[in-house]
Write a structure and sequence with these properties.
This protein is of the alpha+beta class. The protein has 6 helices and 11 strands.
Amino acid sequence: REALHRTCWNGRFFTHFVKLTPVTVPGADEAEQLSLSNPMAVNRGAATHEMAVSILEEYRRRRESTKAFAEWFSIDPPFPAGAFGDEKLVPGAYVNGGIMPLVGGELARAAFEHGFESYGVHILTRYHRLVSRRGESYLWYFPDGTPAAVETSTSPEARPTDGWGSSAMLHALVTGLAGVEDRASLLASVRLAPRWAAAGVPRAEVRVGYAASGASIGYDYAREGEGIRLRVRAPSSRISFHVLLPSGRRARRVIAGGESVPFRNERVERSPYADFEAEDVREIEVEIRMGRGDD
């Protein structure tokens, strides 16, 4: 991690290509190339929180300036046509600047974890609209929105409808917005971080499980006035709650299983969270009573 920071961090994001032998690619602005490895670096723990914020801000800035329909670039700016001797690898195709839901999903996960929850919701919402238009998901798109096709593919192993991107978006939905993260196996230890407040959703029902083992967890979420209620059903799990509160609110009391429990008010950037623990959960009702943040 230290070597990565020392070698690749350029002050805003991780450099795509660190050369051992100097090589110049004519027409490529390599100093500005933002690659798909950046949101992945955030999600695998390679970036500090401050680096993650910088990377997220970089993507948001490029969203404002790009002509592409989304900022989920495989790399931006791309290499010029013909740079690698493949006539199909033109700017905007596949890993040379194609728009990849794989990147969008990783970016959404990073956003949910680092205080950019509304941005994460925005990415998931745009992806939902994108796949709803055709009823299909694609591995990548040209910047104008044209989906990948067999004729435009630059990889003999990647099919146009491969599910890398849709699985990344699903991962962001489950662990980011719904907030169910299995931290052990078979849901024995779970972080539950519902972030429905960022989507303006007052009620939600969530069920997540493994088909092979049958292990599953579910919860009902409800925002009621100055309170949030959760009813959780789990397979004897230890649960670390990390509940996003509405903007400007803080927890005043947490009641779990009918008893007041210790809790912490935490902030991730400007986002308020209530953190607390519950042991050996099979079924439990939780109420978070809130007040104004400056009360």
